[in-house]
Amino acid sequence: MEYRLLPLTEQDEPFLKELYFDVRKPEFLPLGLPEAALAQLLEMQYRAQKSGYAQQFPTLESSVVWVGPYRVGRMLVSAGAAAIHLVDIALLEAFRGHGIGGQLIESLTRRALEAGVPLRLSVREENRAKRLYTRLGFVPRGGNGLNIEMEWGGAAPPQAAGDDSIQETGPVVPGPNGAYFRSICGTQAIVQIGTGEGVVLKLASVRALRRDPDASVSLGDSFRLAFEADSSAMLAQGIYDLQFEDGNRMNIFLVPIAAANGVATYESIFNRMSRPTPVRE
After folding, report:
1. What residues have CB less than 8 Å from 195, skipping those under 6 apart?
2. Residue 238: beta bridge partners?
3. CA atoms lying within 13 Å on the CB side of residue 238
4. From the first residue on, what is the mean pLDDT of each consecutive set of 10 residues in the chain (281 residues)?
5. By the 8 A CB rule, do 219 and 272 touch?
6. pTM
């Protein structure tokens, strides 16, 4: 599912309260409170969380997750000289389980890797998200009996069992294939916008897509590109003509997914997954 990550504004406040109620309401339903009392309790909890985060993380980066024209979640990040801390990720129930959370976390692991610092987070022992964090390469680093402190320090996420992605063999052929993009990873490309100056994009990473191990699909040459650029000239979602340093040009569909600390991140997915054709007897 395609999404974009934009800085929090005052206009997002009603959505943030709606999101908090959507996430936390199931925890309080067993109390059997009248609807009005439940709403009042959630309102108090929401204000307490907001105040607590502001005091604990004075330089908190607050972003809203959008899918198309709709707000669907939020991400809170605190970045310091010694570590990047993922404070919170929350998504509306209808948008959970679609890979958005995993993609948001992977964007933070790339940021931590480039900064040379660990990425840390805290999660409750019973939270289902713990399995996602483990799969993405996080390891436990302590806890208080209620929450587990986890850290990602640069280890690549483990490959899913049965990963059948195509490996590069032979010469690299320029074009929309994983081998070519891996060969130019770390280089720059120019996007010409109208008659003005071009926007410089850096190809920050090339990551193979991972399939559900229970699904009968072939990955083929499926991969995800991440580009970074100065956020002062944000590009809208769309197809752009990119000219790479080696002289090759290519039309690529770019989706803005984050903007923080003056850096805009864009993503492009090449999905060549397919289901094997059943053999008829």
Report:
1. none
2. 254
3. 7
4. 88 94 88 89 91 87 92 93 91 87 89 89 82 85 80 57 40 82 89 77 83 56 87 84 90 84 84 58 49
5. yes
6. 0.56
